[in-house]
Write a structure and sequence with these properties.
This protein has 179 residues and is an all-alpha fold. It has a domain of 106 residues: 3 helical TM bundles of succinate and fumarate reductases, CATH 1.20.1300. Helices cover 67% and strands 0% of the residues. The longest helix is centred in the middle third of the chain and has 29 residues. It is extended, with a radius of gyration of 31 Å. 7% of the residues are buried. The model has no long low-confidence stretch (mean pLDDT 84). Pfam families: Sdh_cyt (PF01127).
């Protein structure tokens, strides 16, 4: 019973108390530089010191781990485009999957073209999977040294080639006919 009136009294004192602050109310904006002025000061100083704009690909020697990192990002984007674009396309088009599967099969597309298209679908999946496994190994705290990083890069490339070849060479059975 004592708590409720005490809490009410405390709340009223806090809410009804005049707004007194120990911090000065003077604005410091007049003494600070704007972002534009700060940027101009930065670039003027860099021009006077003849500093380059920023490190670029020409500054660094292109190496395997750099290529794998770039390719990992590109394959993630390609997978996202494929995995969202294909279902949206199939939903928007009339007919069902078996209709389009049979239409493609009836086109008599030459085998090299079919294998090339299968490669374009299998490579991003295989590469991103292998790079993801490497990241799992890194999450375990293994493989951070320069030698281990390069060895892991070559393992990713070998695994990607093997998995892509396996996926490309797998024969698919046509979907079962509906009765």
């Amino acid at each position: 019973m004592f708590r409720i009136p005490a809490c009410r009294q405390l709340v009223q004192q806090c809410l009804l108390r005049p707004n007194v602050s120990t911090v000065t109310s003077r604005s410091t904006m007049s003494t600070r530089m704007t972002a534009y002025e700060e940027m101009n000061t930065y670039w003027t100083k860099n021009r006077q010191l003849n500093r380059p704009l920023s490190p670029h690909l020409t500054v660094f020697k292109f190496h395997l781990t750099m290529a794998i990192s770039i390719t990992n990002r590109a394959t993630a984007s390609a997978q996202q485009a494929i995995l969202t674009g294909a279902p949206i396309l199939l939903v928007c088009l009339p007919g069902d999957f078996s209709h389009y599967f049979n239409a493609v099969r009836d086109m008599d597309i030459p085998s090299p073209v079919i294998y090339g298209l299968k490669f374009l679908l299998a490579f991003p999946f295989a590469f991103h999977l292998m790079a993801g496994l490497r990241h799992l190994v890194w999450d375990a705290g293994v493989g951070f040294g320069p030698a281990a990083t390069y060895k892991g890069g070559w393992v990713i490339l070998a695994g990607t080639v093997a998995l892509t070849a396996l996926l490309v060479l797998v024969k698919t059975a046509p979907p079962a006919e509906k009765r």
